[in-house]
Amino acid sequence: MKAAFRHILQHRRVKLVLWLLCLWPCAWLVWGATNEALGANPAEYLIRATGDWTLRMLCLTLAVTPLRVMLGWPELARLRRLLGLFTYFYVVLHVLCYSGLDMGFEWGDIAADIVKRPFIMVGFTAFVLLTPLAFTSFNRAIRWLGAKRWQWLHRLVYAVAVLAVLHFFWMRAGKNNFAEVFVYASVLSVLLLFRLKHAKQEKT
Amino acid sequence: MDDASQCKNFWIQGGLVRFNQFSKSSDITPQAVYAQRRDWLKQMAAGAAGLSMAAWASREAWAQTPSDVVGRPGKLAPLTGAVSRVSGANTMEKITTYADASSYNNFYEFGTDKSDPAKYAHTLQTKPWTVEVEGLVKKPGHFDLDALLKLSPMEERIYRLRCVEGWSMVIPWVGYSLAELIKRVEPLGSAKYVEFISQADPKTMPGVRSRVLDWPYVEGLRMDEAMHPLTLLSFGMYGEVLPNQNGAPVRLVVPWKYGFKSAKSLVKIRFVEKQPVNSWGRSAPQEYGFYSNVNPNVNHPRWSQATERRIGEDGLFAKKRKTLMFNGYEAQVGQLYAGMDLSKLY
User: Fold this and answer.
1) Does B48 reside within a domain?
2) CB-CB: which of A39, A44, A176 is closest to B212?
3) For the complex shown, is ipTM > 0.90?
4) Does pTM surpass 0.90?
């Protein structure tokens, strides 16, 4: 069973399949927006859905290494970049939906909004921190930066995870509606705690 | 120009067009008149409010009620009324579709997602239904729904509804001014505020089992706000009884305040001396004040209130429209707040 899974993971089409799977939510949203299938307030639906998918992709990305170590499936490593880039893809869509659908691309208003509202400030910071990671995701960037520096830079994703949950928490705080926030916070906590534990073990 | 005079204006125009049409009805309508009528309709259709204006004009010509014009959805028992004569009660804006108005709701007793009420509110038991009126009144008592329905003639009113979340709708309600009920129970001089309490039954309302808010849902108005003719005790919308998700069988509609002030599925109305603590005020006092008048100049801590998205009308990429002071009812209600600092008493 395990061998079979690992065999599948090695297949050269796996990345293509995963790529299509990751694109599926976006394709569905585009279809929904053009076919009036996103309910009474499609703008709000798109902003929220792209935010949700950013969080989900972030969880999946951060789950790769723990799963690889615990299951002993080194093949998983080759899927990490793809998932990480899709996290960035969805956060870009999220920022675009907010800027365009909510703020009408009024850059002055957007800047004022970011400064004025803590939850938007936190979300925007997470987006900014994720940007250099996306742009240094290709192999040559690792060589340019050196593996050590590249690794340190990409540890920013841990800060991004914390900020993303805080952003979601704050957004829901007005309605005391924390059930979903709790789910993402738990998943991301487990994934980050695994790294803390792992880092300690490596030192000793 | 206020809504009432616009109505009259269209009544006359609509009437003239109809007259033209009928005065020639014995012959084949001459091409000139036909063209004129078509031009007029085209102009109407091209107007700011588009086709709905044309529908409006013809409605006024025949003294049709909002539910006659938009057509009853045919889902629930009919409940109609006369066109209201209350100033501001007949906005000419395009009416939101019934599908949107009955599927995109905040009614936390059935869940926090706006699609939850439409999914889960079918369990709400609206028969029998009693509203208890108590507190500082000469004639307290229990009113069953039938008594309330007969208490005063039904009116149809078209109100803008502005949610504190930044979206809005235009809804044709059916009901009468809350003042009609208040007058009959004869409040004492000491009654300064009215408290509204919604149904909170954990068996039929799944959201009540969660701790999102302290149940039951409580709202309140100052006595002069409660007595204002625009404050509506509503039993229906779109010419039918209220769907459960919209607050059946009886709710409040206060069009110049954010939607959450309009408590749904009322079971108790209490007259009190001190300002009641409303549910949202208790839950997040820094975000929701007691008055909660629609005010584009006072922002919610987490978003701007300067603009709003009209559900079903403003396209996905359209700019949001400007929110109006008191949701456009300033002429009618502005004097209630004369001298008050609305940035503090938000």
Assistant:
1) yes
2) A176
3) no
4) no
